[in-house]
Amino acid sequence: MLPFKTKIKISRPTTISEVLDQLDSIIDNAIINNDRIGYFAFLYRRVTAEILKEVQLENFEDNPRMETFDVAFANYYLDAYNGYINNQPISASWQFAFDTKNDTLTILQHIMLGINTHINLDLGLAASTAMNGLEIPDIEKDFNTVNTILGNIVNEMQDRLSSVSPLLFLLDLAGKNTDEEIINFSLRKARELSWYNANLLWGLGIEQQNAAIQQMDITVLRLGEFIKAPKSKIVMYALKFMGKFEEKNVGRVISKLREE
């Protein structure tokens, strides 16, 4: 297995199965290098595997289109990851998220940094690109189904986090709702923002999107900075204290999260 910073060239996946293979490689590298980037990669693999299952069960309005859309969505993350490990320019918000891999943040913070960029930036980009030349309202129902799958799996992961983060309950004492109080935006709001962004970018057209994308990237970066360092002193103390008692080995964390 290649060490994390080895320069590699990987072909872009064209199917969800190929996406899963590349996510497996990222997770394997993270375990070998004790690299916290693996936390979001693991969560995202769970989401992607669930979407593949729903496509195979034909539970979307347009299942072939959903596979194309999901692969396009995943490639924004995979391109950012491959750009990062090859020291190539990537979005400011992904650069920030990846650069925190050695910071002493909680497991939840590392996961939410990935969710922040992939939902608030990449999801809108993927939807607008997938529907270029088509009517974007046609994908709204399937778009919302993807977001529901994500929300369900994030909730599942938070339930499982107590096995590797035994003081996670402190966040409930610091704020009524972890996502709202700690991250300053809920997944529901993030999903609403991503759909707004998708419509905005779709309306602009591919040739006119650059300025809007740059502004979105800056906004997402600011959210990432808040995830890393919440303004509430009580919340910040709770996170630091919680982190002292968390499992530090990435492989053991992922193994625990995998347990049924």
Which terms summarize this structure?
mainly alpha; 70% helix; disordered N terminus; 12 helices; globular; 260 residues
Largest sheet composition: none
Strand content: under 5%
Q: What is the number of beta strands?
A: 0
Give the uncertain stretches in residue-range form: 1-8, 177-185
SSE pattern, N- to C-terminal? HHHHHHHHHHHH
Our measurement of the CA-to-CA distance between the termini, rounded to an integer number of angstroms, reads 27 Å
Q: What is the mean pLDDT?
A: 86
What is the approximate shape?
globular
How helix-rich are the residues, as a percent range? over 70%
Short précis:
The protein has 260 residues and is mainly alpha-helical. It contains twelve helices and no strands. The protein starts with 15 loop residues before the first helix and ends with a helix.
